Structures are given as C-alpha cells and as structure tokens.
Amino acid sequence: MKIKKITCIGAGYVGGPTMSVIAQKNPNVEVTVVDLNEARIAAWNDDDLSLLPVYEPGLDAVVGEARGRNLFFSTDVDKAIDEADMIFISVNTPTKTYGKGKGQAADLKYIELCARQIAAVAKSDKIVVEKSTLPVRTAEALKSILDNTGNGVNFHILSNPEFLAEGTAVTDLHNPDRVLIGGEDAEAIEALVQVYEAWVPRERILTTNLWSSELSKLVANAFLAQRVSSINAISELCEVTGANVDEVSRAIGQDSRIGAKFLKASVGFGGSCFQKDILNLVYIARTYNLHAVADYWEQVILLNDHQKSRFAEKIIKTMYNTVNGKQIAFLGWAFKKDTNDTRESAAIYVADHLLEEEANIIVYDPKVSAEQIYKDLDYLGTRSPEENRRLVKVVTDPYEALDGAHAIAVLTEWDEFKGYDWETIKEGMKRPSFVFDGRKLLDRKQLEELGFSYYAIGE
Ligand code: UDX
Ligand code: ADP
C-alpha cells in the first residue's frame, strides 16, 4: 500500500506544521490540509509567509518550499476526504466545559463530527490516523462510527500522536526522538511508516498496539508536566531555605538517571496539552475507580495552580500589600517563548489575580495580539469585558509598558527581554523599582547594580 494522497482535517498548531513537514519530505505525496475556519485557511495561503496563522521558527521556509507543489490548504473538506488514501484527524480536543466530566474529560464532539463526515463522504477504503491527543480507547469509538455510518468501505484506524513542542515544532518534526504508530492492521501501519521513513531513521519509528499508543501520549505529557511541578515545588522550598533552585536543578540534572531537561523552575506550565492531558488521565483513572492513581496525578495540576497564585501573591505582598491603581508591566503573555499561543498561559491567571486587586496591567508580548489577550481574560468570566479593557492596556513598544511602571513581571522567557536597555528602563520607573522574574531570565547582578529590587522564582 503506497500512499499518494493525504488529507489532514484541522489546520491548527499540530496539523499545520506536521503536514507541512510531511509534504516537504515527501514531494511525491499530495498533502491537503482542510479546516472549517476560512480565515485560518486564507492565512495559510497568504503570499506573505510572515502572516501564517501559526508562528513557528523555520515554518515559513518549509511552507514556502512545499506549498503549491504538493502542499495545499483548503476549506473544501468533503473533496479532500473523498480523494485521500490516508486522513489525519488533527482537530482540537479541549477539556469539556459542560455535562459529565466537565472540567476534566476531553470533549470529543469535534472528533466525532469528523468521523461522521469521513464516513458519509468516503467511497473508497481509507486509513484514518488519530493525530489529536485523545483519551485511551477513542479509536474504538471512531471505528464504530465509521463502520456503522459508512458506505461499506474499509477503514483502518491508526494512532500517531504528535510529540512536537511549540516554538520548536519544525526542528522537533525534522528530528524527532521517536515517531509512534499504534494500530492493528500491519499493512496500514507500514503505509504510515513509509511516510515517515522519508526522513526519520527506521529505528526511531516505534509501532505498538492502538491503546498503548493513545495512552503513551498522555503519559509522556504527564511525566513532563510532573517534572516541572516537581522542580516548582522545590523552588518554594529554596526561597525559604536560601538554596537556589537553578543550582539544585543543575546538581540533580547531571545524574544521568534524572537528566537535565524540563527542570527549569517557572511561574507555572501552560500550553494546550499539559493540563488538559493530565485532567484527562485523572478522569480516566477515576472512571476505572483508580482513585489513588487519579489523586497522584492531580497533584501535578494543583501544584501548578499554587505556583501561579503564589507568584501573584508575592507581587502583592512585596508591594506593601496593595497593587490597587499601580502600574504593573507584563513582559510576555505567551505560554512560552517563540510561539504566539496563549492557551493556559500562566500570564492569564497571574493577571486575573492582580486585577482582582485592581492593579493596572500593561502588557507587551512580541507575538501576541491585543485581541487575543482580551479574549483570554474575557474567557475567564471573572469581570466584564469593559472592566478588562479599563484595567489592562496592551502595547507594541516594550518601553511604553515599562515607562512609569511600579513593577515589572516577566511571564514569558522571550530572549529579547534580556537585551533591553535596563538602565533607561530604571530611570523611567517608579521607586522602588520592582522586578518579579517568573522565568529566571534576567541578570540579577546587573539589575541590582542598577538599583532594581529583583525577585526571581526559587532564589
Ligand atoms: C508539550 C510537550 O513537550 C510536547 O511533546 C507535546 O506534544 C505537547 O505538549 P508544549 O506544550 O508545546 O509541548 O511546550 P513545552 O515545551 O512542553 O512547555 C510546556 C510548559 O511548561 C510551558 O509553559 C513551559 O514554559 C513550561 N516549562 C517547560 C517549564 O516551566 N519548565 C521547564 O523546564 C520546561
Ligand atoms: P491543535 O493545537 O490541536 O492543532 P487547534 O485549535 O490549533 O488545535 O486546531 C484545530 C483546528 O481544527 C481548528 O482550526 C478548527 O477550526 C479545526 N476543526 C475542528 N473541527 C473541524 C472539522 N469538523 N472540520 C474541519 N476542521 C475542524
């Protein structure tokens, strides 16, 4: 079975970059990415590659190389389904906001809609690949919908979870630690292996059964998030004992059994995956009455929530227990550097906490729009949209945010912050001039010499 045409449903942070690289590395396979969102597809098709809807270093070059050759973006979902041999489902699976499992379980309505649409349209056999992160055993539901509502054609389901991290998506895709493919049908698995073999060494392509593959994705994210919560728990202990969390990270990370990565203390992890996937894991464990397992993983989230509110509390306490009417400049809003994604970003929750105390916040982020920032705050529903706009200002010049500020809070580790003219910034700020570094990004010595009062997580 040789794949000639691939369709991907969902042109988001996962579908867009992944399909771009698959097309780049398989010039003989035609790859079409479809989405219901017309504005998003228009942006993927924009001649100006700096306007792609997903910001990822290096992505413009990949899209520039493949688009129009064998990579296409379209809103015609039915046509793309009809023509494809292999269909990736890469739609969003947010945490449910209603009904059973609200706040924990994954909302599978978008997945189900896709399955029904594929079944209705398909007139020839298809391999359907789950790319979105899904609860274990979703493939079973998918298969049942496809087989029961289809036109009598054969569907093979594969699970092929994506491990790319945002901000490094292109390098992660070009050089993955592993590619995981779960499935039951050897021929279907082999067809997908061949797509990846165009650039990934065979020994890095792991094949498993469907359930192991689905579960491994959740577990990988849970383990990564757990490391961040573990070091963040230690950061609080460092602050009261005089230890330095970076030194502790280095000391333990050199132990090859522990490893050095994902031990950077921070204001808390964000992103679309960690919290959602752990909640999902917790929900599954509870469904099977495994309460000790569920409680264990839930602590990772509770500690992360604690870290975000602890940071906000630290700001309030240090500023003489009141931030009312004070100007607090936020450097960064994205959940990490090199992305314009703000989903579950710690900045949202820290801002919300400070706004409850009537602080005035001025935000600068090199890649996040004002529209997105207000959307994130409005989504919380804590206060009216008018109130959010009254208390929060968004600027495109960082010096405008910093000028006249009582305090600076670093929420995202954008490299450019390090190179700012801190001397000029100090002159323009109120005194005492506080810096709260939630990313341990800036140089304590330099800032203290300039007269800043500098606080960093875990020191
Ligand atoms: C994650 C997984 O890494 C990826 O494999 C999966 O496919 C999707 O979820 P992503 O959410 O894009 O990727 O970013 P990641 O680099 O994992 O960071 C997640 C959050 O943890 C960010 O807010 C980041 O700032 C924070 N983090 C990460 C820390 O605070 N400290 C660390 O040491 C590492
Ligand atoms: P992820 O981070 O998982 O890629 P995103 O929210 O960035 O999530 O992208 C998911 C995309 O899937 C969105 O652009 C959404 O419009 C699209 N989508 C959801 N359901 C469907 C559907 N039934 N058909 C086509 N596109 C869909």
From TrEMBL:
<dbReference type="InterPro" id="IPR036291">
    <property type="entry name" value="NAD(P)-bd_dom_sf"/>
</dbReference>
<dbReference type="GO" id="GO:0003979">
    <property type="term" value="F:UDP-glucose 6-dehydrogenase activity"/>
</dbReference>
<feature type="active site" description="Nucleophile">
    <location>
        <position position="273"/>
    </location>
</feature>
<dbReference type="InterPro" id="IPR036220">
    <property type="entry name" value="UDP-Glc/GDP-Man_DH_C_sf"/>
</dbReference>
<protein>
    <recommendedName>
        <fullName>UDP-glucose 6-dehydrogenase</fullName>
        <ecNumber>1.1.1.22</ecNumber>
    </recommendedName>
</protein>
<dbReference type="GO" id="GO:0051287">
    <property type="term" value="F:NAD binding"/>
</dbReference>
<comment type="function">
    <text>Catalyzes the conversion of UDP-glucose into UDP-glucuronate, one of the precursors of teichuronic acid.</text>
</comment>
<feature type="binding site">
    <location>
        <begin position="273"/>
        <end position="276"/>
    </location>
    <ligand>
        <name>NAD(+)</name>
    </ligand>
</feature>
<feature type="binding site">
    <location>
        <begin position="217"/>
        <end position="221"/>
    </location>
    <ligand>
        <name>substrate</name>
    </ligand>
</feature>
<feature type="binding site">
    <location>
        <begin position="10"/>
        <end position="15"/>
    </location>
    <ligand>
        <name>NAD(+)</name>
    </ligand>
</feature>
<feature type="binding site">
    <location>
        <position position="166"/>
    </location>
    <ligand>
        <name>NAD(+)</name>
    </ligand>
</feature>
<feature type="domain" description="UDP-glucose/GDP-mannose dehydrogenase C-terminal">
    <location>
        <begin position="329"/>
        <end position="444"/>
    </location>
</feature>
<feature type="binding site">
    <location>
        <begin position="132"/>
        <end position="133"/>
    </location>
    <ligand>
        <name>NAD(+)</name>
    </ligand>
</feature>
<dbReference type="GO" id="GO:0006065">
    <property type="term" value="P:UDP-glucuronate biosynthetic process"/>
</dbReference>
<comment type="pathway">
    <text>Nucleotide-sugar biosynthesis; UDP-alpha-D-glucuronate biosynthesis; UDP-alpha-D-glucuronate from UDP-alpha-D-glucose: step 1/1.</text>
</comment>
<dbReference type="GO" id="GO:0006024">
    <property type="term" value="P:glycosaminoglycan biosynthetic process"/>
</dbReference>
<dbReference type="InterPro" id="IPR001732">
    <property type="entry name" value="UDP-Glc/GDP-Man_DH_N"/>
</dbReference>
<feature type="binding site">
    <location>
        <position position="257"/>
    </location>
    <ligand>
        <name>substrate</name>
    </ligand>
</feature>
<dbReference type="InterPro" id="IPR014027">
    <property type="entry name" value="UDP-Glc/GDP-Man_DH_C"/>
</dbReference>
<keyword id="KW-0520">NAD</keyword>
<dbReference type="InterPro" id="IPR014026">
    <property type="entry name" value="UDP-Glc/GDP-Man_DH_dimer"/>
</dbReference>
<dbReference type="InterPro" id="IPR028356">
    <property type="entry name" value="UDPglc_DH_euk"/>
</dbReference>
<feature type="binding site">
    <location>
        <position position="343"/>
    </location>
    <ligand>
        <name>NAD(+)</name>
    </ligand>
</feature>
<dbReference type="Pfam" id="PF00984">
    <property type="entry name" value="UDPG_MGDP_dh"/>
</dbReference>
<dbReference type="Pfam" id="PF03720">
    <property type="entry name" value="UDPG_MGDP_dh_C"/>
</dbReference>
<feature type="binding site">
    <location>
        <position position="35"/>
    </location>
    <ligand>
        <name>NAD(+)</name>
    </ligand>
</feature>
<dbReference type="InterPro" id="IPR008927">
    <property type="entry name" value="6-PGluconate_DH-like_C_sf"/>
</dbReference>
<feature type="binding site">
    <location>
        <begin position="335"/>
        <end position="336"/>
    </location>
    <ligand>
        <name>substrate</name>
    </ligand>
</feature>
<dbReference type="InterPro" id="IPR017476">
    <property type="entry name" value="UDP-Glc/GDP-Man"/>
</dbReference>
<comment type="similarity">
    <text>Belongs to the UDP-glucose/GDP-mannose dehydrogenase family.</text>
</comment>
<feature type="binding site">
    <location>
        <begin position="162"/>
        <end position="166"/>
    </location>
    <ligand>
        <name>substrate</name>
    </ligand>
</feature>
<feature type="binding site">
    <location>
        <position position="40"/>
    </location>
    <ligand>
        <name>NAD(+)</name>
    </ligand>
</feature>
<feature type="binding site">
    <location>
        <position position="439"/>
    </location>
    <ligand>
        <name>substrate</name>
    </ligand>
</feature>
<feature type="binding site">
    <location>
        <begin position="91"/>
        <end position="95"/>
    </location>
    <ligand>
        <name>NAD(+)</name>
    </ligand>
</feature>
<keyword id="KW-0560">Oxidoreductase</keyword>
<dbReference type="Pfam" id="PF03721">
    <property type="entry name" value="UDPG_MGDP_dh_N"/>
</dbReference>
<feature type="binding site">
    <location>
        <begin position="264"/>
        <end position="270"/>
    </location>
    <ligand>
        <name>substrate</name>
    </ligand>
</feature>
